[in-house]
Design a protein that fits this description.
There is one protein chain. The protein contains 15 helices and no strands. The protein has helices spanning 19-24, 29-46, 48-51, 55-73, 80-91, 100-115, 122-143, 149-169, 171-176, 184-189, 194-198, 209-232, 236-241, 243-261, 275-286.
């Protein structure tokens, strides 16, 4: 993985030039493969509720993963990604595998999402984010060697903010696919209707959209900044270990600023940073200019 060139390619995971690509590039070489397998596992499982239209089929797949996690905890892993992770930790004693309940938390959170109405209130949505993406980033911290309670909590906080930021950047495309990634009580508080997100008017934005956009941006940015502040308070070894998560957080902070500056465009089109911009953000983190 070469962090010196911002070329793009759709044929590998993570895609060259993607945010994950530049974040993973800052991980120590000895830990990078284990971290990449963890991220790919989370990426594959997290997509199940959104890619499989039939809730029963989606739940069956997720429950298969729960069984796979149970089997793996007994030394009987079957899936290549789980095997890769367990083998990486077995061959490199310095790499600690996340505890199995942390794996299960993510799958259970996805099952809950399938079984609930897609109209979650804010408390339920925040709990879901922490149970899934928060647990995923906490597991990443462990694989990176930052296993202290404070480091895990900082990583979890970053995961919470990353999920909020990710949902903001995808709010339009997810709504068009049938997923309203905003809590129902938050929509109501800002007088925005679901159909105004899923079928946005090309000529006018919802009256409540500017305040809703400001709320979602402020919420995501606040959690990311809180996580970054917690990272700065860590011992230097833990802080260095969490560098991939710090890179990803700064990339998303820049991205949601772009989203916020473009009004309702995120309802109509995908807003992204260029690979060169993401590479430059990662380099500034490497040099200690962004912390």
């Amino acid at each position: 993985m070469n962090s010196s060139s911002p070329h793009t390619s759709p044929d590998v995971f993570p895609g060259t030039g993607s945010s994950l690509y530049y974040a993973l590039a800052t991980a120590p070489a000895s830990r990078r493969q284990a971290l990449q397998s963890w991220v790919q596992w989370w990426h594959e499982t997290a997509q199940i509720p959104f890619k499989i239209q039939d809730p029963g089929v989606a739940e069956t797949k997720l429950r298969w993963w729960l069984q796979e996690i149970s089997d793996a905890s007994q030394g009987q892993a079957h899936h290549p990604l789980i095997k890769a992770l367990t083998q990486a930790t077995a061959s490199t004693p310095a790499i600690q595998l996340p505890a199995w309940p942390l794996w299960a938390s993510q799958i259970e959170g996805l099952i809950t999402l399938i079984n609930q109405t897609r109209w979650l209130d804010d408390a339920s949505l925040q709990r879901h984010m922490r149970q899934t993406t928060g647990a995923a980033t906490e597991g990443a911290a462990i694989l990176l060697g930052a296993s202290s309670d404070a480091a895990r909590q900082a990583a979890h906080q970053l995961g919470w903010g990353l999920r909020q930021a990710h949902q903001l950047t995808r709010i339009g495309q997810d709504a068009r696919a049938g997923w309203i990634q905003v809590a129902i009580d938050v929509l109501q508080a800002h007088d925005v209707r679901a159909h105004q997100l899923s079928k946005p008017d090309a000529d006018s934005q919802p009256d409540g959209w500017p305040k809703l956009l400001a709320h979602l941006h402020t919420q995501a940015a606040a959690h990311l900044h809180q996580g970054l502040q917690a990272c700065r308070a860590l011992p230097s070894t833990d802080r260095a270990a969490l560098k991939p998560l710090i890179v990803l957080s700064h990339i998303y902070l820049h991205l949601i600023d772009q989203v916020a500056s473009r009004g309702d465009r995120v309802l109509h089109e995908r807003i992204v940073l260029t690979p060169l911009r993401k590479w430059w953000i990662a380099q500034r983190v490497r040099w200690g200019l962004l912390r």
